[in-house]
Amino acid sequence: MVSGQLMFISGGVRSGKSAYAETLVLEAKGERNIYIASGIARDPEMAERIARHRKDRAQDGWWTIEQPQQLSEALPLIRQNDAVLWDCVTTWLANELYEGFEQGSLCADTPGCMEQKWQELKDTIDSIRTKAVYFAVVSNELLDEPLVDYTYQEWLGKIHQWLASRADHAIEMENGLAIRRK
Q1: Stated pTM of the model
Q2: Sign of CA dihedral 171, 132, 97, 94
C-alpha cells in the first residue's frame, strides 16, 4: 500500500516549516507540485493573505487545491507521481472540529463526528501516499499552539502521533532550523 515518502514537519508559527516543506517537495521532482491549502478567508486580512499565497505559488509552478475541510475531496485531483504538500493540519483540524459553529452545533460536541472525520483523514493520507512520489504534511507544534480547548489539543496530539508513526521522516522546525526527530 505505501508508495511515496511521507514527511511530517511541525513547528511553531513562523518557524520556517512551510518554506522548508516547499523546498523538499520541489526537490522531490514530482510530475506536478501540488499544494493543498486549508485556510479559509474569514476576514479581509486572511483573504488578502490567501490571495497573495495563491499568486506566489502559481508563479513558482505550484498547482493549488484549496481544501479547508474534507481532505478526501482533494483525492481525485491528485495524480500518480505528483509531489504533494498539505499545509496545514492545525487549520484543517480547527475547520473540522468547529464545523457548525454558525448553526450552534459543533462537530466537537456531536458524538462520533470527529471520530468519523479522523478515520476519513487517515484513509485519505494513506491514499494520497499511494499516488504521490512525495507527501509533506505541515502542522503547528502542539505546545506552540494557544490553548483553544482541551478537545482541540487532544485531537492535535493524536493526529501528530499517528503522522509521526507513519512518516518516513519527522522534522521539527525551530528558528528556521530543521531538527530531525525521526
Answers
A1: 0.90
A2: positive
CB–CB of 101/128 below 8 Å?
no
Evaluate the omega torsion of the peptide bond into residue 88 and state whether it is cis, within 30 degrees of 0.
yes
User: What is the spatial distance between Cα 81 and Cα 31, in angstroms, rounded to a whole number?
Assistant: 6
Range list of H helices, 60-149: 89-97, 113-131
DSSP bridge pairs for 63: 34
Taking a C-beta distance cutoff of 8 angstroms, is the pair 100, 51 a contact? no
* Residues in Cβ contact with 71 at an 8 Å cutoff, skipping those fewer than 6 apart: 36, 86, 92, 120, 121, 124, 125
Query: Which burial class, exposed, middle or buried, applies to 25 when counting CB atoms under 10 A from its CB (0-12, 13-18, 19+)?
Result: buried
- Is-contact 26 82, C-beta < 8 A? no
The length of the chain in residues reads 182
Q: pLDDT tens for residues 72-110?
A: 999 999 999 999 999 999 999 999 998 877 777 899 999
**Which letter does DSSP use for residue 78 in this model?**
P
